[in-house]
Amino acid sequence: MKSFKESRSRSTNEKTQSVAEDLTQKIAQAYNGKSNAEMLRTILAEAEKSKRAGTLSNEEIENFYQSFAPMLDGGQRKKLRAVVEKLKAID
């Protein structure tokens, strides 16, 4: 039987992963047919709004990056990493 701590840690991790997956899906849908600049604006706007509202953590931002980065080429991935770091710095 799992301890309470293990169960809680797992459910928190699952929630974090779910938020990252939801954000990834929203961004992927918004990106359809848009330029890289439009994609980055969409990512920034959605994530910044959530970060300022306290509904998006740095861990969730990193999970989003890990989920979304494989869909990008090297240059796009580098730009996304810069965006992620900028978002993590928002209080």
The outline comes out as globular
Rounded average pLDDT? 79
> What is the helix content?
over 70%
Tell how many strands the DSSP assignment holds.
0
* Main pleated-sheet profile: none
Report on the architecture of this protein.
The protein has about 90 residues and is mostly helical. It has one domain (about 5-90). Helices cover about 80% and strands about 0% of the residues. It has four helices and no strands. Helix 1 (about 5-30) runs antiparallel to helix 2 (about 35-50), helix 1 crosses helix 3 and helix 3 runs antiparallel to helix 4 (about 75-90). The longest helix has 28 residues, at about 5-30. The radius of gyration is 14 Å and the shape is globular. It starts with a helix and ends with a helix.
Give a quick precis of the structure.
The protein has 91 residues and is an all-alpha fold.
Set out the fold topology.
Elements: H1 4-31, H2 36-52, H3 58-68, H4 74-88
Helix pairs in contact: 1-2, 1-3, 2-4, 3-4
Key descriptive features of the protein:
mainly alpha, 4 helices
